[in-house]
Amino acid sequence: MNTRLRLVADRSATTARPPHEEPLHEEPGPGAARCLGLYAKLAAGVTVVTARGEDGPLGMTVSAVTSLSARPPLLLACLRDGSRTLAAVRSRRTFAVHLLREEQEELAGRFASPTTSAAERFAGTDTRQVLGVPVLAGALAWSVCLTEDVRRYGDHHLVVGRVAAVHVGPGRPLLWHDRRFGTLTEPVPGAAG
Ligand SMILES: Cc1cc2nc3c(=O)[nH]c(=O)nc-3n(C[C@H](O)[C@H](O)[C@H](O)COP(=O)(O)O)c2cc1C
After folding, report:
1. Does 147 sit in the ligand 1 pocket, CB within 6 Å?
2. For residue 171, how far is its CA from the centre of ligand 1 (angstroms)?
3. Which CATH number is 38-178 given?
4. What DSSP string runs through 34-45?
5. Beta carbons of 162 and 145 less than 8 angstroms apart
């Protein structure tokens, strides 16, 4: 009798799992489509991230840009896997972030279009080199960053940049919310233009 009891106890010890090892399918996650619905509700400024590629300037529209630290000055951007701009940000170790003005919706669309070549994206916009990086004229603000870290998370890469140069100009920001461009409805205190 004692032996039988011990055998039963031993078998239950091998099949029971600690709570943190419970299989995930017992509480299924919300799925990518529902998460994208959540992300769409994040109101964000619209930026264009540029970098110098092998054959000339590269750039893409990015709304996933956030300030990270003031001392040292760091910001972060999330760039999709396979992006041409990301490859240059990685290899050249420098990039620029331009915060767009509310009048620059067309520019944002151009730098997001997968069928528009890099040269076409830059066509008609004055560009100069700052620390070897193409900087677009007319942005609300821009910074040139040294690539501090690039780390893959899921289908995007987290890029951390150390801010090496900054310019802040007049105007109001272009916004992205609910998969649409928008603008602030209230006047910006102290904003000219
Ligand atoms: C408003 C808006 C915001 C976007 N935000 C991002 C973003 O945060 N990260 C990203 O990887 N792509 C974002 N995209 C998509 C890229 O701009 C797009 O995939 C672009 O074609 C990539 O260019 P590349 O492959 O030449 O680098 C956004 C597009 C739009 C219209």
Report:
1. no
2. 23
3. 2.30.110.10
4. HHHHHHHT--EE
5. yes
The pLDDT tens digits for 8-55 are: 333 334 445 555 555 545 457 899 999 999 999 999 999 999 999 999
What DSSP letter does each residue of 46-115 carry, written as one string? -EEEEEEETTEEEEEEE--EEEEETTTTEEEEEEETT-HHHHHHHHHSEEEEEEPBTT-HHHHHHTT-TT
**Nearest residue by C-alpha to atom 5 in ligand 1:** 62
What's the 3-state SS for 130-174? ECCEEEECCCCEEEEEEEEEEEEECCEEEEEEEEEEEEECCCCEE
Q: Pick from 89, 64, 96: which is nearest to 147 by CA?
A: 89
Ligand 1 nearest atom to the CA of residue 46, by list position = 1
Domain ranges (residues) in the chain: 38-178
Which has the closest alpha carbon to 52: 82, 96, 97?
A: 96
Q: 5 CA to middle of ligand 1, Å? A: 63
β-strands 65-69, 56-62: how paired? unpaired
Indicate the length of the chain as a whole number: 193
| The model's pTM | 0.86
